[in-house]
């Protein structure tokens, strides 16, 4: 579990949006326009992105195979530099370029820029994979006050300066917790959690645990929901798992069916 407490100022009115790598390739103009409306409305937005398909292609070109355990890519020392270069040099620059072309001031960043610190998740199991340890809220606030959206590639740095591959959902959750974000939106190629072929519209942490145990939630969805639960524990009111249509499953800190629920965060773009 991450311990991503902010070391400085907490960012006000902050919303963290994570975009999955498979979604980036077909990211719609309507999504970009929605993001621009958020910024113009005064929201502080932090973007976090993955890059699975691009990483798969880069590894395949070098005839390198990789193993995935519970949705997390086991990253060997041979792979980490390829992953770093792909995420920072290709994926991040494309996304930042698209945002700036749409009139959204954005800058590409990673753990090497001091916005968050990280360490090995479990080196024996995952090798060069990291988790978020602390978030520097002050640096995020400086960028956002200047009207610049931080676009984070999911690359961290170990205490001894080595690059670490961080699951994008884990990074987004850690940052959202660290800056005490009002909401976390996980944009993927899957329209939320499916149960018996139907999308679960609203759910709670207790129901999430039950769905993991009975196998309803599996594979890459596991780190998504686990990260969401960590965020809810640290004060984020709601986490939405959605596709590019921005509709999907909302995980509430408390049941949406209770008699006197807290006011939920608006997480619709």
From TrEMBL:
Gene symbol of the encoding locus: argB
EC number in record: 2.7.2.8
A GO molecular-function descriptor: acetylglutamate kinase activity
CDD domains the UniProt entry points to: AAK_NAGK-like
Aspartate/glutamate/uridylate kinase domain sequence ranges: 15-243
Organism for this UniProt entry: Chryseomicrobium palamuruense
Pathway: Amino-acid biosynthesis; L-arginine biosynthesis; N(2)-acetyl-L-ornithine from L-glutamate: step 2/4
Gene3D superfamilies: Acetylglutamate kinase-like
UniProt-recorded name of the protein: acetylglutamate kinase
Known catalytic reactions: N-acetyl-L-glutamate + ATP = N-acetyl-L-glutamyl 5-phosphate + ADP
Keyword line: Amino-acid biosynthesis, Arginine biosynthesis, ATP-binding, Kinase, Nucleotide-binding, Transferase
Pfam families: AA_kinase
InterPro entries: AceGlu_kinase-like_sf, AcgluKinase_fam, Asp/Glu/Uridylate_kinase
EC class of the enzyme, as a word: transferase
């Amino acid at each position: 579990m991450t311990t991503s407490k902010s070391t400085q100022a907490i960012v006000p009115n902050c919303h963290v949006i994570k975009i999955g790598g498979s979604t980036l390739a077909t990211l719609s103009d309507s999504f970009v326009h929605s993001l621009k409306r958020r910024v113009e409305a005064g929201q502080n937005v932090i973007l976090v992105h993955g890059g699975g398909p691009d990483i798969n292609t880069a590894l395949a070109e070098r005839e390198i195979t990789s193993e995935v355990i519970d949705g997390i890519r086991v990253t060997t020392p041979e792979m980490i530099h390829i992953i770093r270069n792909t995420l920072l040099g290709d994926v991040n620059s494309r996304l930042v370029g698209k945002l700036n072309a749409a009139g959204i001031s954005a800058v590409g960043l990673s753990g090497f820029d001091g916005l968050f610190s990280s360490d090995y998740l479990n080196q024996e199991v995952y090798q060069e994979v990291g988790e978020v340890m602390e978030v520097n809220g002050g640096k995020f606030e400086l960028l956002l006050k200047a009207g610049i959206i931080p676009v984070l590639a999911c690359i961290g740095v170990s205490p001894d300066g080595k690059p670490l591959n961080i699951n994008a959902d884990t990074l987004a959750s850690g940052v959202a917790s660290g800056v005490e974000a009002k909401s976390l939106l996980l944009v993927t190629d899957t329209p939320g959690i499916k149960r018996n072929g139907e999308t679960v519209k609203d759910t709670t942490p207790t129901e999430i645990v039950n769905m993991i145990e009975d196998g309803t939630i599996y594979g890459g969805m596991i780190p998504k929901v686990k990260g969401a639960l960590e965020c809810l524990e640290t004060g984020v009111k709601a986490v939405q798992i959605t596709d590019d249509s921005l509709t999907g499953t909302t995980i509430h800190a408390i049941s949406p069916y209770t008699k006197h629920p807290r006011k939920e965060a608006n997480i619709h773009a």
